[in-house]
Amino acid sequence: MNDNHGLSRRRFLGATAGAAAGAAALGIAGWPGAASAANGVLVPPGKRGIILYTVRDAISRDPLTTPQPSGFRRVLEELARLGYKQIEFAGYNQHANSEGGASLGNPAGAALLRGWLDDNGLEAEGNHASIPSTLNDTTLGQFDLACELAAILGLGHIGTGSDPTNSNFKADWDAAAERWNILGERAMTKFGLKLYTHNHDAAYNFLLDSGPLDPLGRPTRSSGVRKLEYFLTQTNPDYVFLEMDIYWAHVAQHRFISYTNPDGVATPDTFDPLALVQAQPIRFPLFHAKDGARTADAPGVGSGYVMVPLGTGNIDYGTFFANMGAKGYHNPMYEQDNAPSYTGGGSLGAAAVSYENMASLRG
Q: What is the CATH number of the domain that holds 20?
């Protein structure tokens, strides 16, 4: 990417040490990772991020009808006031009455957003955009435009909130890997961007890659390889990256506990999200730090978790961030899909609680 938009800031984020001291007391008692201030800060101040999908209700509010922060400019100001330093976009739309109008998904709008980011000491790391499902001149042109907007914004990554394919079949994952290799190389060589996919729980279900075949000639059983793990083996590690949603990975750990092997035998298998990251940490430049409170669901039944503000659930973020490898490389983005309904002040209230608990992580 042309480095005309202050990207050098990214080089020193991991070195900012200061503000750990006051944050230590803010962890919730008993939460893994909310430990002694004598231990190291797991998420440095400059790496504490949020995806704007979490606060989408605030961004979409009509500023003419409420004194609350509304629209990109005011919401970015509020997030910076809370302490966040990194931003992940989830599109570029806001309420039409907000400064800049309804859509900022164009070069002029991206320049406006970039100014607001810079004014508040914020750095944008990624965006959940639409990745072409077919490749032709039109879709490649659209992809290039998305990359150009990312360059204006100073993003280091461009990605999607969807899995590469919703299919369970090996042939479809092969096709997705081929497409993503092409797009990943294009994003890197033309724009200096890392192309990433975000996971949901289904992406860690087992790949159907073994016989017998169904009437359409598709495999009905599995060798025990999980879909997104297979995708990693089929994509170029220089060009294709992942943003693990840690909550959905834990839901997958709860849900997908066995597969039917080629002989028709149910075979237990436990998914370990942390081990997947440890095996190749550079493939995971971004995370969604989304917490979940355990439910009473039996293994393999239901989701196993419900979303809650970061640090108020049962996912062991202290252990995860302390042991994932490549220290200082990763960019965790707090996300909570149901934050707009949070009773402690809506999405911005949830963002405040979650920032303090992210800051309190020690390991």
A: 3.20.20.150
pLDDT tens string 88-145: 999 999 999 999 999 999 999 999 999 999 999 999 999 998 899 999 999 999 999 9
Q: Which residue has the tokens 């979650």?
A: 354
In whole angstroms, give the CA distance from residue 25 to residue 36. 9
Residue 1 lies in a domain: no
φ and ψ of 335, to 5 deg: -140, 145
pLDDT tens digits, one per residue of 48-85: 999 999 999 999 999 999 999 999 999 999 999 999 99
CA distance 268 to 259: 7
- What Rg do the C-alpha atoms of the chain give, in angstroms? 21
How many structural domains does the chain have? 1
Rounded CA-CA distance 307/11 in Å is: 33
Is 2 a domain residue?
no
* Residue 70, both tokens: 């509304």
Cα atoms found within 13 Å of the Cα of residue 50, Cβ hemisphere only: 32
CA-nearest of 296, 282, 280, 288 to 243 is 288
pTM of the model: 0.88
Give dist(CA 91, CA 267) in Å, integer: 41
The C-alpha angle with vertex 88 and arms to 84 and 93, in degrees rounded to 5, equals 115
Distance between CA atoms of 145 and 141, rounded to whole angstroms?
Answer: 6
Distances 257 to 145, 253, 317 between C-alpha atoms, Å: 41, 7, 22
Tell me which amino acid residue 22 is.
G
Enumerate residues 6+ apart whose C-beta is below 8 A from 233.
Answer: none
**146, 114 contact by CB (below 8 A):** no
In which domain, by residue range, is 326 found? 7-360
Q: How many CB atoms lie within 10 A of CB 251?
A: 22
| Within-domain flag for 289 | yes
Burial profile 114-135: b = 16 or more Cβ within 10 angstroms, e = fewer: bebbeebebbbbbbbbebbeee
